[in-house]
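Anyone able to model this chain together with heme C?
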Amino acid sequence: MKAINILISAVVLILSNTTIFAAGDAGAGASAYSMCGACHGLKGEGNRVMNAPKLAGQDDWYIISSLKKFKNGTRGKGDPVAAAMIPMATMLDDKKMEDIAAYIATF
Ligand code: HEC
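re: yes, here you go
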């Protein structure tokens, strides 16, 4: 019984830790987002002409995971349209990605 309690505590701890992720600062994200708005729209509404999808309403964790993939080269390479995102994501560190995702969540 004791072992089960320890196991349950461990699982709860792991689950609660994962929610700490994406605790960005929306205020800081607002200024970092200014360069994104040129393609994605000031309110993340997307812009078909720029091939830039809507970001408003998207999950913060997905925004962050997409930015990481563009930065580490697992997304966008060899695709002339998507490659536009590589230099954008490369400019951002993890904290900025979280801040931007928090700002997008306010749209
Ligand atoms: C030069 C235009 C341009 C700029 C500036 C730009 N993006 Fe993008 N973004 C794109 C394009 C084009 C795509 C579509 C990529 C694809 O087809 O996979 C995209 C895709 C994305 C995606 C993936 C969306 C999804 O649903 O999978 C995210 C997230 C994103 N951009 C965030 C940003 C952020 C944050 C910034 C500012 C730091 C930014 N973008 C700046 C053009 C741009």
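The pocket of heme C is lined by residues 35-36, 38-40, 50-53, 55, 58, 63, 66-67, 81-82, 84-85, 88, 92, 100 (CB under 6 Å).
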